[in-house]
Amino acid sequence: MEAMARILAARLMPNECFVCGQGAGSALVCGACREGLPRLATVCPVCAIPSGEDLICGSCQRAAPAFDATAAALPYVFPVDRLVQALKYGRRLALTRFLSGLLEPLAPPQGAAVVVPMPLHPGRLRERGFNQAAEIARPLARAWGLQLETGAVERIRDTAPQASLPWLERRRNMRGAFRCHGSFEGRTVVVVDDVMTTGATLDELARTLKSHGAARVVNRVVARTPSPV
Question: Could you tell me which residue ranges the Phosphoribosyltransferase domain spans (predicted)?
């Protein structure tokens, strides 16, 4: 019935591809544009920065982050940046299922794992009306068959936007930004976020999670910036 409904919807109310504007049927991005999305090649397995080889990058060797691994679906370049920004700032919530689908193949190991979306400060949440990371994480956790925890961690400091700060200031900006409720003792925590730039926010969240017992923290992000900025 669901398949028939999708076929009927595609015929009666065809979508225009969000990227090229051509007919996309019931999809938000046509097949050609989806296949043509830029891809990440070889990356650092810890921070997912493009490195030219599947080895831990120099930055992670010099100062290992609190998280253990990162996998990103795509590089944060056109048109990926346009898709993410349309969700985050344009409130195109229909894009969450598409972006979540890009992360599905990056499933973490099965076991004592829990999915935690990157939390927003309550002030930002009221302003935006939704947490884009949580919206992406919901269908993702279902697809992976993992527990989703949306209230286990909160952001208690409304920090300055990371994009507005020099690289060295971003770590200091995030100190003490998160608070955990309860224990993650012995569990793998899968943190879901939309974009990773320097990784300072994910690093601070992982530090907080490990201080509450997490055995491993692995990141799953839709897009990774080509290089730290």
Answer: 181-221
Q: Are 202 and 119 in contact (CB under 8 A)?
A: no
Concatenating the DSSP letter of every residue in 72-97 gives EEEES-TTHHHHHHHHHTT--TTHHH
* pTM of the entire predicted model: 0.88
Q: Which residues pair with 188 in a beta bridge?
A: 113, 216
CA distance 158 to 177: 8
**149-205: per-residue pLDDT in tens?**
999 999 988 765 555 555 566 666 677 789 998 899 999 999 999 999 889 999 999
Q: Is the peptide bond before 14 cis (omega within 30 degrees of 0)?
A: no
Going along the chain from its start, the domains and CATH numbers come out as: 1-36 (no CATH), 39-224 (3.40.50)
Contact 228, 65 (CB under 8 A): no
What three-state secondary structure class fits 202? helix
Give the residue from 228, 229, 222 showing the smallest Cα distance to 79. 222
Q: Residue 33 is encoded by which pair of tokens?
A: 């544009």
The two three-digit tokens of residue 206, written as one number: 């992982």
Please enumerate in sequence order all residues whose Cβ is within 8 A of that of 26, keeping only pairs 6 or more positions apart, or say none: 6, 7, 9, 10, 14, 15
Residue with tokens 């346009």: 82
pLDDT of residue 161: 59
Tell me what the pLDDT averaged over the chain comes to: 87
Antiparallel, parallel or unpaired: β 69-75 and 23-25: unpaired
- In sequence order, what are the residues at sequence separation of 6 or more whose Cβ sits closer than 8 angstroms to the Cβ of residue 152? 114, 116, 180, 181, 182, 184
CA 105 remoteness from chain centre: 13
